Structures are given as structure tokens and as C-alpha cells.
Amino acid sequence: PAAIQLDSLTKRYGDTVALDDVTLDIAPGERTVLLGLSGSGKSTLLRHLNGLEQPDSGSVSVLGAPVATARGRELRQLRSRVGFIFQQFELVGPRTALENVLTGALSELRGPRLGLLAYPKALRVRAAELLAEVGLEERAFQRADTLSGGQQQRVAIARALMQQPEILLADEPVASLDPESSQQIMALIRELAERRGLAVVCSLHQVELALGWGSRVVGLRAGKVVLDAPAHSLDESA
Ligand code: ADP
Ligand code: ADP
């Protein structure tokens, strides 16, 4: 079955049509770039995939389950299978890197501050392993707001992987980073996703980053899909 299935998804905000009749199937393990200018609907699309937005019409199904009607426990369960990475990282600044990663086990970004020992040992071990995997083991006990942007995004990526999701969503994950960190973070996302066989959907506005990274490129303009092609087919003509 598809990892993600959108069928005639339409979403309006007042007079703005943010998504206009979007139909899209994404297979497990596929690495998809959502490419479009600011305001083209990328965030809105991603936010429908973990129930942060409700469609006006059409349907959204993730890992075989309809998202729009999911509530409470069902929605938390769905979100635990879908990791999300944000442009502004969305870490809790005064907490350590390790605490922020552990928060990923709670299905909420800003849950109560729990002492490290409130987490079962297996979770503490997994969080430490994930921090090592993103190259930050020496920073585990450093406050998140003292880390560089690239390091903060690494923490956020580790947090998104805490519940061992099957899908990873990234909303402009490098838009706040310098070019070198951007390359590093995109490479890291790709490597972690490949290692785990995750489907990734990543929104970007830079064509150069998109073509080298995705296996598939979906272009959005004013809420419509205006391009859907294998990345390699675009690289030649670029
Ligand atoms: P992005 O381009 O990454 O979506 P924005 O600055 O456009 O960033 O949006 C930031 C947040 O504000 C998002 O959560 C988005 O849903 C919301 N947003 C965007 N446009 C509007 C708007 N016109 N009115 C209210 N909220 C908006
Ligand atoms: P992108 O992520 O590609 O920058 P968005 O999905 O954030 O685009 O926005 C698509 C359109 O919907 C834009 O015109 C934006 O201003 C509008 N929009 C997004 N979120 C909101 C919101 N919460 N309220 C009003 N308008 C919004």
C-alpha cells in the first residue's frame, strides 16, 4: 500500500486556495521533494499529513489510515508513525539536547519537563544513540539554545526519529541555515532515511538542492501540482 495517499485534497483560507485539488500517491521508501515558492502550499500539504490541518474536501490517508477523521488516541498513534522536522527546529531552548530528543517519545513537542530519570532506561539509551547518529554525542548535556542552527536541526531530527516512524516529513528544514550546513543537513536526512527505509517528504524552495537530493520532485504552484517527475529526469534538462 501507499505510504501517503492524497485524493483531490482542497484547502482554503478565506479567499486563498492553499491547496487546489491535489492528488498524489507516495510509496514507502520514496524520497520526495515538494518544490515551490513561498506561499505555494507546501506547508499546508505537509500539515495535512499529520493532522495539523483538516481538508475542506478530498481525502488524506497515511499508512493506510484516513487522517481527517482521526482523533485522540488514534491521532497520537498516527503521529507516532510520522516524524516531523520544522524550519525553525522548534526545540525547547532551555532544555538539553538529550531532553529535547527524549521529548520525541511523548508525541508532543513541549510536554512537561521530566527529569531524565523519569524516562525508562531503554528510551534514554535510544536517545543517546540517536544523538550519536546525528553526530552530537558530545553535546548531549548542552542547552539547545546554545547550539548552532545546524546542530539544533540535528537534535530535531533525532527527536523526530525517537518513535521509529515510517515516514519523515520536513518543512523547509534548511531554510534557516547557511549553505554549508544546508548541504550537511540534507545529506544527513537522506542517509538516515535510507538506512531505515523511511518515506521522506521534504519541502524546499531551492531547485539546486531539490534535484540533487530527491528521487522524485513534486512542484507546487498556487496550491496545484504543476510537476511530478523523477529527479534524474530533471537533472539533465536543468
Ligand atoms: P512558510 O512559508 O514556511 O509556510 P509562513 O511564514 O508562510 O512560513 O507561515 C508560518 C505559519 O503561519 C504557518 O504555520 C502557516 O500555516 C501560517 N500562515 C501562513 N500564512 C498565513 C496567513 N496569511 N494568515 C495566518 N497564518 C498564516
Ligand atoms: P508554503 O509552505 O509553500 O510557503 P503555505 O502552505 O504556508 O505555503 O501557504 C499557502 C497559502 O495559504 C499562502 O497563500 C498562505 O498565505 C496561506 N495560508 C497558509 N496558512 C494559512 C493560515 N493559517 N491562515 C490563512 N492563510 C494561510
UniProtKB/TrEMBL annotation:
<dbReference type="Pfam" id="PF00005">
    <property type="entry name" value="ABC_tran"/>
</dbReference>
<dbReference type="InterPro" id="IPR003439">
    <property type="entry name" value="ABC_transporter-like_ATP-bd"/>
</dbReference>
<dbReference type="InterPro" id="IPR027417">
    <property type="entry name" value="P-loop_NTPase"/>
</dbReference>
<dbReference type="InterPro" id="IPR017871">
    <property type="entry name" value="ABC_transporter-like_CS"/>
</dbReference>
<keyword id="KW-0547">Nucleotide-binding</keyword>
<keyword id="KW-0472">Membrane</keyword>
<dbReference type="InterPro" id="IPR003593">
    <property type="entry name" value="AAA+_ATPase"/>
</dbReference>
<dbReference type="InterPro" id="IPR012693">
    <property type="entry name" value="ABC_transpr_PhnC"/>
</dbReference>
<dbReference type="InterPro" id="IPR050086">
    <property type="entry name" value="MetN_ABC_transporter-like"/>
</dbReference>
<keyword id="KW-1278">Translocase</keyword>
<keyword id="KW-1003">Cell membrane</keyword>
<keyword id="KW-0067">ATP-binding</keyword>
<dbReference type="GO" id="GO:0005524">
    <property type="term" value="F:ATP binding"/>
</dbReference>
<feature type="domain" description="ABC transporter">
    <location>
        <begin position="4"/>
        <end position="238"/>
    </location>
</feature>
<protein>
    <submittedName>
        <fullName>Phosphonate ABC transporter ATP-binding protein</fullName>
    </submittedName>
</protein>
<keyword id="KW-0813">Transport</keyword>
